């Protein structure tokens, strides 16, 4: 008989851009056909852009374990919630040397096999003017313009009303 092998599915952002010197949350969530077990383990690893050796970043088994050495020692924090299938971490004080690919692997017994989530991190000196920024400026400008137009319409109506009231008073006074 063939056993159907269930697998853990891991979900991450494909690419994250962060500014040099800031902190960045690397989001990783998972789904499993089995309930979360006490043997659930999470491994975060790093592959630098120069394709040198993989480096361990973080490990979780019943509790979070920070790396005892390496470039991420004292720079990584657990930010996940196992009950919500979230196994995210935060990398502190990002540097250009942190450019590379982070992998998130989850094993949830009996679902020990599955996809490995990958996040490509790019650390930049400053944020470029992206489409999102352009959209935010456009929406903000349109909102300010609408407020100005509405204010002008209200002022014009009030002036017309006052002029009409004056004409009526003058006409009543002449009678």
From TrEMBL:
Q: Which GO terms describe its biological process?
A: cell-cell adhesion
Keyword list, A-Z: Disulfide bond, Glycoprotein, Immunoglobulin domain, Membrane, Signal, Transmembrane, Transmembrane helix
Indicate yes or no for the key word Oxidoreductase.
Answer: no
What GO terms fall under cellular component here? Answer: plasma membrane
Coiled-coil stretches are none
The cross-references to SMART domains, in alphabetical order and at most eight, read: IG, IGv
**Cell compartment(s), UniProt:** Membrane
**UniProt-listed PANTHER family:** MYELIN P0 RELATED, MYELIN PROTEIN ZERO-LIKE PROTEIN 2
In the record, the note on similarity to other proteins reads: Belongs to the myelin P0 protein family.
What is the protein's given name? MPZL2 protein
Species in which this protein is naturally found: Regulus satrapa
> Gene encoding this chain?
Mpzl2
């Amino acid at each position: 008989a063939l056993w159907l092998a269930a697998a853990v599915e891991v979900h991450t952002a494909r690419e994250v851009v962060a500014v040099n010197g800031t902190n960045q949350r690397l989001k990783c969530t998972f789904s499993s056909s089995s309930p979360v077990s006490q043997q659930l383990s999470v491994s975060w690893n790093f592959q630098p852009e120069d394709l040198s050796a993989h480096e361990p970043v973080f490990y979780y088994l019943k509790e979070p374990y920070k790396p005892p050495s390496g470039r991420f020692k004292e720079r990584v924090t657990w930010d996940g919630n196992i009950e919500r299938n979230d196994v995210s971490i935060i990398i502190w004080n990002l540097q250009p040397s942190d450019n590379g690919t982070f992998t998130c692997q989850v094993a949830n017994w009996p679902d020990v096999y599955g996809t490995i989530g990958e996040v490509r991190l790019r650390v930049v000196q400053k944020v470029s003017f992206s489409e999102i920024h352009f959209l935010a400026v456009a929406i903000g400008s349109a909102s300010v313009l609408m407020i100005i137009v509405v204010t002008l319409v209200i002022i014009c109506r009030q002036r017309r009303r006052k002029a009409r009231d004056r004409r009526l008073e003058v006409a009543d006074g002449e009678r």
